[in-house]
Design a protein that fits this description.
- With 263 residues, the protein is an alpha/beta fold.
- It has two domains: 167 residues, Metallo-beta-lactamase, Chain A, CATH 3.60.15; 82 residues, no CATH class.
- A hairpin with a 7-residue loop joins strand 3 and strand 4.
- Helix 4 runs antiparallel to helix 5 and helix 6 crosses helix 7.
Length: 263
């Protein structure tokens, strides 16, 4: 599947990119919210499974207008636990570590920060998980998903459409990289995607990407490590990275990365 081979549907807020795989459709919701969230809906025989949740009230309303709650078989809540007012009656699936991350850990701290930054527009309510899942295959809405636990939450392979969901990729924007060990882990993960030949890589903060984008990110992460070895401070590191990647977005993520490499 070509990442640009989709039909666009305008919503009251944001837009939907619809990929048709035959038996399954992927609806990629570009929310256009302040933190560039993406939400993914898998449709099969009139039933939907949602990966992640919108976390701003206007996006909640737009997506609820697009798909009726009664047609949703479940939601997989991984890295984004906010938005708990969205489709309250739907079953919510998460691993225990994702629950901990969203309810009490780093994910919950982010929710607190976003709530302070965006005020009443932000849905700070945490989703109530109804089904705690473990690694391996689960089936929801007639679709198989393969769960892989990560440090913070979990990634999701979708064999029927040869796609995988993870938190971040973004081939032309900075990412949060918590030092050299984390960079190596990200490189290993992306190299596994390349070796498995996924058609699409879905992430929480970017439109669907492909293996060429994964290789671009691998090269970026290797360069990031090399730059860090040449620098003596966070400011020097940031300046050097910006010089090498002048057109990259997400400078706030670069600030966080610099702080972690030079704690």
């Amino acid at each position: 599947m070509n990442k640009n081979d989709f039909k666009t549907v305008k919503l009251d807020k944001g837009e939907m990119h619809v990929y048709d795989f035959g038996g399954v459709k992927l609806h990629a919701y570009k929310t256009d919210d302040p933190i560039n969230d993406e939400v993914f809906l898998l449709e099969k025989k009139g039933k939907f499974v949602i990966i992640e949740s919108p976390c701003f009230f206007d996006n909640n309303a737009a997506l609820e207008k697009y798909v009726d709650e009664s047609a949703v078989a479940g939601m997989l809540i991984s890295y984004h636990a906010a938005g708990g007012n969205f489709m309250k009656s739907v079953r919510k699936y998460a691993t225990q570590n994702a629950r901990d991350y969203g309810e009490n850990g780093g994910g919950n701290a982010l929710i607190t920060n976003f709530s302070a930054a965006f005020g009443s527009a932000f849905d700070s309510c945490v989703h109530k998980i109804t089904d705690t899942i473990t690694e391996g295959k689960i089936t929801a809405g007639g679709i198989d998903f393969v769960i892989t636990q990560t440090r913070e939450a979990f990634d999701i392979a979708i064999p029927e459409i040869n796609a995988v969901y993870t938190h971040m990729l973004g081939h032309d924007c900075h990412s949060i990289v918590a030092g050299e060990t984390h960079a190596d882990s990200m490189i290993s993960q992306l190299e596994s995607y390349v070796s498995k030949g996924y058609s699409l890589i879905l992430t929480s903060h970017y439109t669907p990407e492909d293996l060429k984008d994964a290789q671009t990110k691998i090269n970026y992460l290797k360069e990031l490590k090399a730059v860090a070895k040449e620098c003596a401070s966070a400011e020097q590191f940031k300046a050097a990275v910006k010089k090498r990647f002048p057109d990259y977005g997400g400078e706030n993520y670069l600030d966080m990365t610099a702080g972690m490499f030079f704690a």
